[in-house]
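Translate sequence into structure tokens.
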Amino acid sequence: MSTEAQQPQDAGNEVAVANGDVPAEGDQPQGQQQAAPQSKMESFFAMTKSLILRALIIYFVSSFFRRGQPVANNANEKSPAAAGPKIHAWNYFENGTLFDLHVWLSDDIDQVNFQQKSNLLWLQEDLTYGDWKSGPNRDGTYYHHVNVKATPKLMTNGSIYLHVFVTKQGESPDPNSPYFARNSVMGHQTRQLNKFKKIRVNRNYNLLASEQEKLAFELAQVNLKDTIVSHWHPNLTLNLVVDQTNWAQGTVPPPLDEFVKFVDNGKTYLPIVFINDYWNLQREYYPINETTPELPLHLTFQPIGMFKWQLYAAQQMKNKFAGNMLGELMASGGGEESDEDQDSLKETMLETNIYLLGLTIAISILHSVFELLAFKNDIQFWNNRQSLEGLSVRSVFFGVFQSLIVLLYVLDNETNFMIRVSCFIGLGIEVWKIHKVVDINYNTDHKLLGIFPKISFKDKGSYSESATKEYDNLAFKYLGWVCFPLLIGYFVYSLVYNEHKGWYSFVLNMLYGYLLTFGFIMMTPQLFINYKLKSVAHMPWRMMTYKFLNTFIDDIFAFVIKMPTMYRLGCFRDDIIFFVFLYQRWQYRVDLKRVNEFGFSGEMEEQAAQKKLEGTTPALKDKPAVEANAKPKSAQDKKKD
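Result follows.
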């Protein structure tokens, strides 16, 4: 990992001023650090699964749109890779080469004002290429601290760039210098130091406020809108790739091809400079304005190997990919939430033991497999279901309502695109279950609004003719005595103490919070039906087993990952229900009269086997009899035949 997380101070600090004036010592930026935003507390393995899914989608889409080698228009126009035999280039810096590091500041992405000496932030001389044991910590790493004066242009959403040059010892990147690098052969990389982030206006208010308070709030919000503001982070790492790979021009795979620059007709490539900000957490950025006249910058120079560089470069390409149209679609609702997920992932990687981290990733993959298996068996269960005896039909309709509320909630809030898709698919599955539990009739003679046919629902015979319907109604009656007081109490609490964007948002937030807190009790009607029927043969045990395994994984990570105590306790709610199901399975022994999840009972299976046996027995009995009564043919009979 990069040493960017550490902040050592250099004794020989320099002060760079954009206009050449040196500020007084002791001046410190004011109001630099804002309060860290509240991030959503979700387990690390859930984030890992989300990142794996995004990576797969990005890979397949990029592979689909990846362009091949350009086709030559004529015989004289050929790509470097196709023009004769490939030339394997050598690194311009061999191991042991002495070089200098030049770090310049500029407000232009393409040019540097070398005449303004105050723009030189750092000059580190007499470095050795391939040296991993120099520096204050004997690991090849050097540190430097400098204060950058924020110009009026930078305070008003201007941009500022860092230019990093790597030259051989004694050479200069300045074209006007007598020591200018021969033939401009030197490593060079540019990076924008500031980052533009959107600051969103909080438009929530208390719905019980008086009309005068609401009017004052609306007047205050009239001229406010979401703004794009330039932000600053004080840390940056400068990596020099130490590697002697013999690259061939035109064959360097992306995204490495953006950094490998060839000279001398492809015979040599320049030293690879990589500016790394991967470990800069988004919550550590702060706005650049009048309260920040000086901006601290902690620079770290560190050599890096090929493997680690490939990982960082791939991550940087992913961030660029997330900035185009598909990236906006993937992170619909803004990149802020994606940044929060990235921060949570990075913090976990920094703070978690490496063995625990590996175990977490492995279990996350296992968790995804269990989810897919539970999803597959749930659909298979309802698709093959022949009888509804013992199943709670009302719970299916409540599942549709619950999925609809969750979908509307994530649409009302700025949520990741993948979460919206998963909620939409979940709602579709719940709606699909309806026609499996009831008979749906479409009356085209009576249309709603003259367009939509009137829809009516009728209970299936296997549900209404059994005692299941009676027990189901009774269970929801008892459940209503518990749920409605809780719903009213949560309604009053949310209305009085929470702020909302409006009444629609309030209703969605209230229902979503209620379902999240008390949704587990909606599984109790099935427990009640099982208790009345004294049977659990109709339950989808395979699907429930997969879900229980995932719940068990949730319980483990509830104590591994840092999260609120109430959230940890909430992870055990489903466990209680499932253990009651297990107790019922143990208590209610196998009953051949009860139907299973496929609509068959043990007696039905025995009857079918008996009928099959009766249908084949006469044929088997007659065949030996015929053969026994038949006389063997004589030699004359055979001759006649």
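Note: The chain is about 45% helix and 15% strand.
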